[in-house]
Amino acid sequence: MRQQIAAANWKMNLTLDQATHLLDEILKAPHDLQAHQKVVFAVPFPYLLLAQDKISGKLNFFTAAQNCYTKSSGAYTGETSAEMLQSIGVEYVVLGHSERREYFGESNAMLEEKAGMALTYGLTPIFCCGEALQVRESGAQNDYVEKQLKESLFNLSEEQIQKMVIAYEPIWAIGTGKTATAAQAQEMHAHLRNVLARQYGDTVAGEVPILYGGSVKGSNAKELFAQPDVDGGLVGGASLIAADFGQIIDALK
After folding, report:
1. Residue 172: what pLDDT?
2. CA 217, CA 229: separation in Å to the nearest integer?
3. Up-side HSE of residue 79: CA atoms within 13 Å toward CB?
């Protein structure tokens, strides 16, 4: 059965005390997770060890970094390598979030390097793709996200692509309060799976989790996750509210 994932992307938020309290609140609630269901906390770098400690011994809970660099080591002040993340037990890394692409100029070619580096050190990349409002309004969204996948991931082998998680994030629905309808989310997720199938075959494409990443909330998660090709969510603002993220976890199929 394909993995179902509720991934919390805290972005650049919370003090240490706030982060500790939020983790405690989320983790104290009972969540009846099945073997194929996972919860991932993508926390700021200073809180990775805190999150690792909090989830220790809890089945199906994992940590993720929000980024990594294209090199394994060297004179790159301020960067963090996949090898460093591996060394502290981090298992996932978010790559290519729209904010990284927009504010820090991350290109598809750079993300190709980052994905390869993450896989080399045993990390599971959560690879983000998605279109801005003007692309959606022009009707070019399918070609746009297909290009993101092709230029960043299609150098990977079948074995490697099966270790990936894809996160579709309509940029026009991030932090705006707008949300793609469940039908719009399903349409794009099905397209992404078809893109993968044309390159790697139906069996491989059917094993890759595809998360929805546009203003997922406790109130809409169940409807979104009920779609056949929506395998969970990469959650921003709602992941900072324990009750909301708890609802999202419980909405996994």
Report:
1. 85
2. 18
3. 15
pLDDT of residue 177: 67
Which of 106, 112, 131, 169 is flagged as catalytic?
169
Query: Minimal CA–CA distance to 148: which of 95, 200, 211?
Result: 95
Please say if the pLDDT value at position 24 is more than 80. Answer: yes
Burial 165-175 (b: 16+ CB within 10 A, else e): bbbbbbbbbbe
The rounded distance, in Å, linking the Cα atoms of 180 and 172 is 9
Domain limits for position 38: 4-250
What's the pLDDT band for 214 if we cut at 50, 70, 90? confident
Rounded to whole angstroms, how far apart are CA atoms 207 and 200?
A: 11
> Can you read off the two tokens belonging to residue 105?
């100029």
Q: If we measure between CA atoms, which residue out of 154, 246, 137, 149 comes closest to residue 200?
A: 154
Domain count, the chain: 1
Q: Which among 97, 106, 112, 189 is annotated as catalytic?
A: 97
Q: What is the pLDDT of residue 12?
A: 98
Question: Is 191 a residue of the active site?
Answer: no
Q: Are strands 37-42 and 61-65 parallel, antiparallel or unpaired?
A: parallel
Domain of 167: which CATH number?
A: 3.20.20.70
- Work out the mean pLDDT of the chain and round it to a whole number: 96
Contact (Cβ atoms closer than 8 angstroms) between residue 108 and residue 130: no
- Residue written as tokens 């700021």? 44
Known active-site residue 97:
yes
